[in-house]
Prior knowledge:
Structural class: alpha+beta
Helix content: 40-55%
Low-confidence stretches: none
Radius of gyration: 18 Å
Shape: globular
Oligomer: single chain
Largest sheet: 5 strands, antiparallel
InterPro entries: Beta-lactam/transpept-like, Beta-lactam_cat, Beta-lactam_class-A
Organism: Streptomyces prasinosporus
Protein name: Serine hydrolase
GO molecular function: hydrolase activity
Mean pLDDT: 96
Keywords: Hydrolase
Strand content: 15-25%
Number of helices: 10
Order of helices and strands: HEEEHEEHHHHHEHHEEEH
Amino acid sequence: MTDALARIHAAFADAGVTGWLHAVGIDSGAQLDAGADQPVCTASVHKLCLLVALHEHAAAGRLDLTEQVECPPAGRTAGPTGLAAMLDAARLSLRDLALLMMTVSDNAAADLLLRRVGLDAVNATTARLGLTRTLAVHSFGEMLATLKEDAGPGGARALADPRVITRLRALDPARTNRSTPRDMTRLLGAVWRDEACTPEHGAAIRRILGLQVWPHRLASGFPFDDVHVAGKTGSLPTVRNEVGVVEYPDGGRYAVAVFTRTAHTAATLPAADAVIGTAARIAVDALRAEELRAR
């Protein structure tokens, strides 16, 4: 594992990011720790916690996933995808809102679900699963509001200024939605082992995670038709994250969480995106080799 850790840290350095990673064999328990207990801001990765809470409530009969929700254009949480980018009124079920929230990271859909489930319920779910370093402190709309307030009169253009970046509450794990790489792989493992929800709801969660449309981070490290990657990204200024599960045709299942920060304020940094896949691949290869040696 020492060589793999060195290669992961070198890959992060070459991409110009500071990175933290945890990877674990879901069935074997073999793990690789590259800063697994570092507190990190989750950004949209926290939508995974909301998704699990939603399905926990459905499994307990506290809500019906086919329940219809009115989605008027006024008051929608901002964002570049899904309902957040749409102009007209819509009406969707809770489960279809969840699909938008996870596959295209729709902020408006997420906050509609959060309004139905509640922030306290999300935290109760993560606490029940033993995620002691994971906490949701605000909605996605509230998080975006802190960005706007902290950026000041310069607006979005001010986010290109490194001095402004340093004062953003949304980038401070002590003041925003937060977790650790280890907590996130623990959550993924619970979902894949049907410990987070009943098997029916666990399967629904896994299906949605497998439909995420973004191939440029975690999935980029596994460009094989017979390897399945399911995950959730998270992005904020200077932050690029993804957590997910990589499944091999031989039955190997690996939960991986990668969180990164960069000093560069550019919104488009392909190398910073791609290193998430690179680091994950190094980690998973090392775990598979470890499992082979243990047989």
